[in-house]
Design a protein that fits this description.
The complex is a heterodimer of chains A (429) and B (241). In chain A, the strands form three sheets. Chain A has a six-stranded parallel β-sheet. In chain A, β10 and β11 form a beta hairpin. Chain A is of the alpha/beta class and 429 residues long. Chain B has 241 residues and is α/β, with parallel strands linked by helices. In chain B, the strands form two sheets. In chain B, strands 4-5-6-7-8 form a five-stranded mixed β-sheet, with helices on one face. A three-stranded parallel β-sheet of chain B has the order 2-1-3. The chains are: A alpha/beta (429), B alpha/beta (241). At the A-B interface, α1, α2, β1, β2 and α3 of A face α5, β4, α6, α7 and α8 of B.
């Protein structure tokens, strides 16, 4: 029989609208909102994991709302130069109780507003105290409230490692923010943090997870792994250096994702640039990051250590233009990994091509009808031996750059194609 | 010639068989607005014939009937015609054809099915429940495709122990989960008595939605690409004051 008292809540701990606003506004610059990678089962409570991730709403800035992204407290003892919540800054402060957060998650989840919780916090009182409060909240949510949905927890640097290890058994994903792409910039802009204070806990958790998996223990240990994020454009590092850092994080620390956040000046400081970092650079970095993770590229192939990514065209185009000796490739015979390196052909198109060509020779017209985007690709492929591109390198460069300009001019058509819409929905983006 | 059938799976399979060798055949369900001057026949559903065709198509492709079920839920104007062309190709090739994307019929079928799949996935996120006085949940929506029933397993797994109703206001029907079984009921208008806290939670959600946005980075076109305006009507964060 359905027991309504088990689920109906009597708003004794309902958070106030103002407190919710303060703690949300303080958390909104955090980039990650993905809810993918966990298939936690519901065993008699509320919620479950959704392996591909799920977006529940979209805000006018074009970002998705998947998780309830909130700080437990924005009352910080650190003084990171780029942060709205830094010590001494004149902002409204608030701290929520673990129960307020739990009630909020349960009631939002029940109404299908959210896919789970992304809980973070300013360093309130001390790193250990903050981490204890975070742990207390997620533990309560799982054990007392019976919540089986997705939880992403932010790790607090310098907190006792036993605390983060225990938290990892309750949540689906943890992340420590690298914040800035080099130790030097970190020292300058976030003097109370150090590279070790974020890298060390990440490595420890990665090690713990591999032990956990090897021993085939019961329960969970970060089923959706770890991620990190860094601010781009607040410090002088080149894209090449940033991509090398990401590559080592993927390879050595086994991270699921690195998020890049284009610098937005929210506070003023003589050490910080006055201008925002720009969306295009962030976009290029994500494109390059995709090449690292899904397209078999290495950072060396994409950009030299001190180089920046070209703004005129995407990094795969830039790479292909540097290697005219490898193109054009024949669409009907090229192996999958070669197709993936053709500018304009993404994973979905490459899959469509390899599937369809088993049944018939693919002509250029058929390719277009299959909705493989050919405006970039046509310069780098042949269909049944025929070439449809501009031929000489200079003409190709001109056309590609013109294409990009048109795209960028149309405010953010960057993301408005059906393919990207799909990947955003499935949480890849 | 237009072949009219009763909208059921058996009806479709009967009409499919009758129309099979007619080059200019068009399949449509009864109620379809006939174009002037077009000839039409109404096909009487023949259950035993349908069973035979079903078995035959299944022997060519084990997923074919699952796909037919989806085609019949499609809200596209020409979905029956698309399905007809697709199954005709399947019957001719006598093996799965879904990978033959160079073929127009397969491509159109693939598009039609992906649109349904996309809408189901979107609705897993965009459905909005309201808590009623009894504790049961109620959601209204108006999807492009007839998918209310197909959403039940997803919500049933995560809202264990909570009964819920998903109301398709466009088709005037509801998928109901009463914690024991799922059934479909005709439902025109629902009188919903909200729980005492419902409005307060909706207000909290609206405040959250406003607070998490970064106004200096407005990208409305991108937002609407992901969240079509027609779905917003049922989502509290977009309710007008």
């Amino acid at each position: 029989m359905f027991d309504k008292h088990k689920f109906v809540c009597y708003n004794r701990r309902m958070i106030s609208e103002d407190k919710l606003q303060i703690l949300t506004e303080s958390a909104k610059y955090d980039v990650s909102c993905s809810s993918s990678g966990s298939s936690r089962k519901n065993t008699g409570g509320m919620g479950n994991g959704y392996i591909s991730g799920c977006c529940h709403s979209f805000t006018p800035d074009g970002r998705c709302i998947s998780l309830l992204k909130i700080l437990l407290s924005n009352d910080c003892i650190f003084r990171c130069k780029y942060c709205v919540n830094r010590l001494g800054e004149d902002v409204r402060r608030a701290t929520a109780t673990p129960d307020e957060i739990c009630e909020l998650v349960m009631d939002f989840y029940k109404r299908n507003y959210i896919e789970g919780l992304f809980l973070s916090s300013a360093v309130h009182r001390s790193p250990d105290y903050t981490m204890e409060q975070l742990l207390l909240t997620v533990k309560k949510l799982r054990k007392e409230y019976g919540f089986y949905g997705y939880i992403h927890l932010k790790g607090i640097p310098y907190a006792d490692e036993a605390l983060s290890r225990e938290a990892a058994t309750y949540v689906d994903r943890m992340s420590y923010n690298i914040e800035l792409p080099s130790d030097r910039s970190l020292k300058l802009l976030a003097p109370q943090k150090s590279k070790e204070s974020v890298l060390l806990p990440m490595k420890k958790l990665a090690l713990e997870k591999s032990v956990f998996q090897a021993e085939r223990k019961k329960g969970h240990f970060l089923p959706a792994g770890q991620t990190t994020q860094m601010i781009v454009g607040a410090s002088p590092e080149a894209d090449g250096q940033i991509l090398r850092l990401s590559q080592s994080l993927y390879r050595v620390t086994g991270l699921k994702r690195v998020y890049y956040s284009s610098y937005v000046p929210v506070v003023h400081d003589s050490l910080l640039p006055e201008k925002a970092g720009g969306a295009l650079r962030e976009h290029r970095l994500y494109q390059a990051d995709w090449l690292l993770r899904f397209y078999g590229f290495s950072a060396d192939e994409i950009a030299g250590e001190g180089e920046n990514l070209p703004m005129e065209y995407d990094p795969k185009c830039a790479w292909a233009l540097r290697h005219p000796e490898l193109f054009p490739v024949e669409i009907n015979t090229a192996p999958l990994e070669t197709l993936l390196r053709v500018p304009g052909i993404g994973a979905r198109s490459a899959y469509k091509i390899t599937t369809a060509r088993k049944h018939a020779k693919l002509t250029f017209e058929v390719l277009q009808k299959m909705r493989v985007v050919t405006k970039r690709a046509r310069h780098f492929i042949t269909c049944c031996g025929k070439y449809y591109g501009a031929g000489n390198q200079d003409a190709v460069k001109l056309l590609l750059a013109g294409e990009e300009r048109r795209e960028n001019a149309e405010q953010l058509s960057l993301f408005s194609s059906r393919e990207t819409a799909l990947s955003a929905l499935t949480g890849e983006l | 010639m237009i072949y009219l059938y009763d909208g059921t799976e058996e009806g479709f399979l009967t009409a499919f068989t009758k129309a099979f060798s007619d080059e200019n055949a068009q399949l449509a369900s009864i109620g379809f607005q006939l174009p002037l001057g077009q000839e039409a026949v109404t096909i009487e559903t023949d259950t035993s014939l349908a069973e035979k065709v079903k078995a035959r198509l299944l022997s060519f492709d084990r997923r074919s009937m699952r796909e037919l079920g989806l085609f019949l839920r499609s809200g596209d104007e020409d979905s029956e015609q698309v399905a007809f062309a697709y199954f005709r190709l399947l019957a001719a090739k006598k093996r799965p054809v879904r990978e033959m994307l160079h073929d127009e019929a397969v491509r159109r079928a693939d598009d039609c099915l992906s649109r349904i799949g996309l809408e189901i996935h979107r609705m897993h996120g965009f459905i909005r429940f309201m808590e009623t006085e009894s504790g049961a949940l109620y959601a209204a929506f108006a999807p492009d495709n007839d998918i209310a029933e197909l959403l039940v397993p997803h919500f049933r797994a995560r809202l264990a122990g909570l009964p819920f109703v998903i109301h398709d206001v466009k088709r005037k029907k509801a998928a109901v989960w009463d914690c024991k079984r799922c059934f479909i009921a005709p439902l025109d208008r629902a009188e919903v008595l909200l729980s005492a806290d419902e409005t307060a939670w909706q207000n909290l959600w609206k405040r959250y939605y406003e607070s998490v946005n970064i106004p200096s980075r407005e990208r409305l076109r991108q937002m609407r690409g992901y969240l079509p305006v027609r779905y917003m009507k049922f989502m509290p964060e977009f309710y007008r004051q």
